[in-house]
Amino acid sequence: MKMKKEVIKIKIENELDVVLAYKRSMQLAGFCGLPMAGQTKFATAVSEICRNVLEHVGHGQIGFNLIENKGRLFLEALISDRGRGIANVEELLANHYRPYSSKGWVSIILRNW
Q1: Given 3-state DSSP classes, what are the helix, strand and coil percentages for the chain, each rounded to the nearest 5?
Q2: Which of 7, 79, 91, 96 is the most buried (most CB within 10 A)?
Q3: Can the keyword Kinase be found in this entry's annotation (predicted)?
Q4: CA dihedral (31, 37, 41, 44) positive or negative
Q5: Where exactly are the structural domains of the chain?
């Protein structure tokens, strides 16, 4: 049986809300027993998505939930907005989009030591 319990909701309207979302993510991940590296990864992902909402839409909301499924506990961050959407979604999905800046690109360098 799956059970969902809402913990907290935060409106995303300015940069301070993004910082608050990061801090709450760290706290909740810590309460759930994630190691520090896991807490940081979770909180960073949450804050980056919140920052994208703020930058591209202007406002949104994040809800944190605890979900129990088959005896296991999960922490969920559900980030939503009611924006104008992505104008060039077909181009993005076709992988033809090239941004003017480096935003959205990740470089990974692997080395043998």
Answers
A1: 40, 25, 35
A2: 79
A3: yes
A4: positive
A5: 2-93
* The CATH number of domain 2-93 is 3.30.565.10: yes
pLDDT tens for each residue of the chain, 113 residues long: 688 899 999 999 999 999 999 999 999 999 988 899 999 999 999 999 999 888 888 899 999 999 888 888 889 999 998 877 667 777 767 775 555 544 444 333 333 32
pTM score, two decimals?
0.73
Q: How many CB atoms lie within 10 A of CB 68?
A: 13
Rounded (5°) CA angle 87-93-94: 110
